[in-house]
Design a protein that fits this description.
alpha/beta, four-stranded mixed sheet, two-stranded parallel sheet, 6 strands, elongated
Length: 193
Amino acid sequence: MAKVHFYPFLGKYFPKAPLSNGIGRYVPQLQRVTLKFCKNHGASRGMRDFIENDLIDYAKQNPGAVVYVKPRRHRGPVIKAEYLNGETHWISCRKFTREEVVKYMELVRTQSHNGSKVKLTQFWHTDFPSIQGPWTPFTFRDPKLNLAEFPNNKLGESLKTEPTATEEIVRLFKEQKLKEETEDVRCQGQEKC
């Protein structure tokens, strides 16, 4: 069984599209990306490879996001993503390969906030909660069921509102047989039938 961790510093959140994004048109939420790296340190090699080979294509494919490159001495590589809702997401890229940097750049492009810093409050969510509470199978049940003792033959019966097809055929057969018997009795008293 998986171990459940409790992190009290995580904020409670339920994922939702900001301002109903995507209903009329999709507005990319990534506003700014800053790539911080060291020109000499080995831990920044993947970031430097990404900048040399993939950064121009990334900037062309995402014209709505501004990409900054910030070299710094003797510091680890970092991706800093800023979104339209004001949130900032930091990803440490220490000893990442070029492919891993590409994956994380795609991650910050497609999400609308830092999804890793929040825990989900519940499995379902609605923007318009009911004041009556959620529906359950017992919502409209008769309160007498609270006092019933089980097993109960009366409550255990199936609820039939109309006869089944078999019962209808049996009823029609009995009516036909009864009709034939009454005709036979009537014909026995008369010579011609």
